Amino acid sequence: MISVNDFKTGLTIVVEHDIFTVLDFQHVKPGKGAAFVRSKLKNLRNGNTVERTFRAGENVGRAHIENREMQYLYAAGDEYTFMDTETFDQISLSHEQLKWELNFLKENMNIKIMSYQGEILGINLPKSVDLKVIETDASVKGNTAQGALKNAKVETGLNVMVPLFINEGDILSVDTDDGKYLSRASN
């Protein structure tokens, strides 16, 4: 058990049989009434974000999440197969479990699989990934205003807004949190 007074961003907790990670929290001490902790939590089973208020000093369960290094091997239909890099055991995850992550997943990519008491919760991608541009809109002559952007499609199918100087075949660094262009990757 852990007190809500000890919340930290990234802490994983169990509340009412669901597993959450703490995204944000705020200790509130009103002039009248008892102190409380206002928090923003992400459900690791379904990805939903909820806001929850706890009484100061209230205890919640601590969830010990296991992260295993795995390599993405291949896709077969709606199943995506991963291999443990130490034991060579293979597991498959469904399209439903990987909706957002599929925008960044490339074959032979190393990732971390999150699990809680044997239940697989999802995957942790690196902060950014390098993806090749396979299609991009043409730059329009004269469209050189500060910060002008165009659409580019990368090898995983994700559409990214990029600066006008990006061309087909370029390798981009893309943020895995929001899918935004970070920079042109060095070859």
From TrEMBL:
InterPro entries: Elong-fact-P_C, NA-bd_OB-fold, Rib_uL2_dom2, Transl_elong_fac_P/YeiP, Transl_elong_KOW-like, Transl_elong_P/YeiP_cen, Transl_elong_P/YeiP_CS, Transl_elongation_fac_P
Pfam families to which the protein is assigned, alphabetical: EFP (PF01132), EFP_N (PF08207), Elong-fact-P_C (PF09285)
Keyword Protein biosynthesis: yes
Family matches, as PROSITE patterns: EFP
Function noted in UniProt: Involved in peptide bond synthesis. Stimulates efficient translation and peptide-bond synthesis on native or reconstituted 70S ribosomes in vitro. Probably functions indirectly by altering the affinity of the ribosome for aminoacyl-tRNA, thus increasing their reactivity as acceptors for peptidyl transferase.
Source species of the chain: Paenibacillus germinis
Compartments in which it is found: Cytoplasm
Single Gene Ontology MF annotation: translation elongation factor activity
Pathway per the UniProt entry: Protein biosynthesis; polypeptide chain elongation
Transmembrane segments: none
Gene of this entry: efp
Keywords in alphabetical order: Cytoplasm, Elongation factor, Protein biosynthesis
Every Elongation factor P C-terminal domain range: 129-184
Translation elongation factor P/YeiP central domain: residues covered: 67-121
Family under the similarity heading: Belongs to the elongation factor P family.
UniProt name for this protein: Elongation factor P
